[in-house]
């Protein structure tokens, strides 16, 4: 099954709760009146596009078809058009131009961060790149072992130290190993302990300084992993990491486990950070670059 099919399957719950109920609403209304628009706004909020974005989308729909007869097909088409306009028509580029390129993967524990590291490694290996993974989440119980298991599945090597080691030292070793082994990309798995927020942010800042000293322009990407099932809480998490970690893109996981896939739109609107990858399952192939056109197609078709 291709990724578009998996994405459509993954978005089934969101599609049913948003598009399916929208079709039912528009199908029984004689025109796009205020009652219908209010119900549509509630549906958008429930799908986690965000209250302000929902109000804006409904206002645009009001101007386009408000007060006149419009069937479900037209209402759907208008909403689809406006969502795509907000997300942008193109995919998001990823900067892997360094020698080696250094990618930090950040986020709170439980979002799928470590498995995302392996999935990114697998994806870039498929593109012909040699990838190393740095086990810099050194304080989480069994964190290094979990990464090693996933790295074996992805067919990539892990650079590690003992449990409790300095994460920046692990990142340093990984960069040196990448040079020695002529690797193209180093992916650094970092800690995600929000209950020690100050220490965590200092730790991330130190890793950034170390890799920047070793490789010009590093880190080339800082990817924040967010769990789609947490809805607006994911946006709040992103704000915590934005300043300290210098996030360049979002990896949105577990889209298959939620009816609130509109969080993709909320992230773009509220934070201005591009969603660069989306995940819809546990297999290595279930993480792919985010394509707004394919996302909207999967949501509406």
Attribute tags:
eight-stranded mixed beta sheet; 12 helices; alpha/beta; 301 residues; 8 strands
How would you explain this protein's 3D organization?
The protein is of the alpha/beta class. 53% of the residues lie in helices and 13% in strands. The protein has 12 helices and 8 strands. It has helices spanning 3-10, 12-28, 34-46, 51-65, 72-87, 113-126, 143-154, 167-180, 197-214, 232-245, 263-271, 292-300; strands at residues 101-106, 131-135, 157-159, 185-189, 221-227, 249-253, 275-279, 287-289. Strands 3-2-4-1-5-6-7-8 form an 8-stranded mixed sheet, sandwiched between helices. α11 links the parallel β6 and β7 (275-279). α1 (3-10) crosses α12 (292-300) and α2 packs across α5. The radius of gyration is 21 Å and the shape is elongated.
Average pLDDT works out at: 88
Structural category: alpha/beta
User: Which word captures the global form?
Assistant: elongated
- Strand residue content: 5-15%
Could you give a short account of the major beta sheet? Answer: 8 strands, mixed
Helical residues, percent:
40-55%
Segments where pLDDT lies below 50 for 5+ residues?
A: none
Query: Count of DSSP helices?
Result: 12
Rg, rounded, reads 21 Å
Number-wise, the strands total 8
Which strand order do you get reading across the main beta sheet? 3-2-4-1-5-6-7-8
The sequence of SSEs as H and E is: HHHHHEHEHEHEHEHEHEEH
Distance between termini? 17 Å
